[in-house]
Amino acid sequence: MLFLKRYSLYLLIILISFLVKFPIFFFHQWLPKAHVEAPVGGSIILAGVLLKLGGYGLIRMILFVNNENLILFLIIFSLLGGSLLRIVCLVNRDIKVIIAYSSVVHIALIIVNILSKNFWRLLGRIIIILAHGVCSSGIFSCANIIYERSHSRRIILNKANLNLFPMISSFWFLLCMANFGGPFTLNLLGEILLIINLRSVNFVLLILVLLISFFSATYRIILYSNLQQGINNNLIFNMSNFVLREQLILFAHIWPLLFLLLSSNLI
């Protein structure tokens, strides 16, 4: 009996460690600060590699968890964090903070569905993990390209990019659309698999997840429209051309999405 209690305690500690790395609500306060202070390479590694290691560890460890009350608590806890952060994303005006918090909201959907052992949910969460790693790091690259020219992360100082950088605006559009699950994207396939199978957990939770998905698309569209449209404030003077290196970096984030989608056996 003592062995079982110690085993459950150790299992809970390991599970929490992966949830912190993923991250879950109340443990994501380090994430915006890390993205804001880190260079673009650090943001790409954090969004594209480290967060996915937390998801992989959670997928492996959840197989040993049979406590239904703990699973329901983690689901509600994750949805609470996603619901609060979607409001923060709507009112925030820092580009990198919005992208960082939107990643946490997106990952909340994965945490909710990762607590099940169904094959289709496992496939859906793996698809979203892969797509999120490529989309999120690509959007951070776009934000860094703008920051290198304006030296500001504020949306109000980075307007009218559609007139200044028409090519980078197309990359912004493709990555934002792929990130919120637009038509013919890998995220759409994964979210459909997750939402269809979530109804077996709780119908009320399904409604909350649908609201999170709706607001996720809302603030990404707001971010794109505020950055690409509007009138130039004439405060940005260093407007060098969109160099080939930056084009190749953004293209390297887009082609894996198309390749993974076309190579999927579910299409």
Question: How would you explain this protein's 3D organization?
Answer:
The chain is mainly alpha-helical and 267 residues long. The protein has one domain (2-262). The chain is 76% helix and 0% strand. The protein has helices at 2-21, 30-37, 40-61, 68-91, 95-114, 119-150, 161-164, 166-179, 186-198, 203-228, 244-262. Helix 5 crosses helix 9 and helix 6 (119-150) packs across helix 9 (186-198). The longest helix is centred in the middle third of the chain and has 32 residues, at 119-150. The chain is elongated. It starts with a helix and ends in a 5-residue tail after the last helix.
Feature tags:
76% helix; 267 residues; mainly alpha
Compact description:
The chain is mostly helical and 267 residues long. The chain is built from 11 helices and no strands. The protein is elongated and about 65 Å long.
